[in-house]
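REVIEWER CHECKLIST
Item 1: Sequence provided? yes
Item 2: Single chain? yes
Item 3: Sequence as submitted:
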Amino acid sequence: MVSLRRGAKQAPNPDAQMSLTEHLAELRMRIIRAGLAVLIGVVVVVLFYDPILRFLVEPYRKLCERSPDGYCGESYDRATDSVSLVYLDPIEGLAVRFRVAFYGGIILALPVLLWQLWKFIVPALHKNERRYALGFVLSSVVLFLIGGLIAFTTLERALEFLISWAGEGTAPVFQVDKYIRLVTLMFAAFGVGFTIPVLLVFLQMIGVIGWRTLLGAWRYAIVGTFVIAAAITPSGDPISLLALSVPMVVLFFMAVFIGRIFQRRRERNE
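Item 4: Structure as written out by the authors:
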């Protein structure tokens, strides 16, 4: 028999139960790390604020560039090929800068945020389920960024649709606060929508829902996807609605297929 000397450290048991105090300490540590990651991202965005702002205004500039004279009113200068947004409050410019920095910091820190969230819920998972941590984090980040990229590419058509409904004799003069809010909400809506299938795969892996149940409710899933896309799309235009809902439907069936593979593999192992 092997005896442990007094004061010798024992190897940590990942399957051991944690007390409430340990859970709170773990949560505090994860929140601090996530907050530091966001803070670093905010600093980076503040340092590169002007190029980022030009990048965010690029869809509106492209729309004005290919439109006839007077379409964008005085917002677009064809001689310099530039657009200008207005602000109506002395502190609005500062508020917009901080808003862009905060949202940009979250996006830059997204891998760290998801990793800290996963590490916090890992103790509640089985040992064979913890090995998929990196895959879940990477797939969530990639799908979120793909969703944001699609939102950004459809923003030009969305703006054209919204401007066309203003009627004749009107010219757009966008307020910088309202424009940035629309862009960030579009980015967030598409990003979150594209990561929902990752959640479905996770729920199938832990046994909360089965792939047969999801596949049997595919009609409701398609209708619900379009309803959710219509609810979370801030612009409300049909172009953004289709650009969000159609990929979400495809990703839903992919999530069911991946869940089927995991469940078949689990059944074989059992």
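Item 5: Key structural point noted by reviewer: The chain has a mean pLDDT of 82.
Item 6: Recommendation: ____
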